[in-house]
Amino acid sequence: MKIVKHFIVNIAISSVVLYVIANYIPELWLKITSQYKDIFIIYWVLWILFRFIMSLLRRIIQMLALPAKYFTLWLSSSIINLFMFYFFEQFINYLDVGILVQLGTVVQTFILSLIITTLYFVIRKLI
After folding, report:
1. Which string of DSSP letters, residue by residue, matches the chain?
2. Which residues of 5-25 are buried (b: 16+ CB within 10 A; e: fewer)?
3. Range 99-119 average pLDDT
4. I need a surface site. Which of 4, 57, 86, 92 has the fewest CB within 10 A?
């Protein structure tokens, strides 16, 4: 039951964070446009897809980054998230379902990755 609670709370908080970053912090240059009207459902679906993709590929990437992870845990998680953001962008745009995800420069996306990594760490410690 705790896993389900953690999953639902994580999706809710992360979707709100994704919405705020995409709509109110243009310096991070994350832009999500959709032809659909219910934008909050879009953010929920995008975050669920992102978490699903991340859970599948994260194990492989973590095994490849295992030596570096022991030395720089937070930085390596942020770098993994950076690669996941670019993979997520390519995957969603490849599906061509009327949703366009655009990321900014590498520095902007890395800052976004640091924010997401920090928030995920805080959420995990709170729950």
Report:
1. -HHHHHHHHHHHHHHHHHHHHHHH-GGG--EEEESSS-HHHHHHHHHHHHHHHHHHHHHHHHHHTHHHHHH-HHHHHHHHHHHHHHHHHHHHHHH-SSEEEE---HHHHHHHHHHHHHHHHHHHHH-
2. eeeeebbebbbebbbebbeee
3. 82
4. 4
CA distance 127 to 110: 26
Has this prediction a pTM greater than 0.90? no
Neighbours of 108 (CB within 10 A): 14
Q: What is the pLDDT of residues 76-105, one digit of tens each?
A: 777 888 888 888 888 888 887 788 888 888
**CA 5, CA 46: separation in Å to the nearest integer?**
19
Residue-range domain boundaries for the chain: 2-126
**Calpha distance 71→99 (Å, rounded):** 38
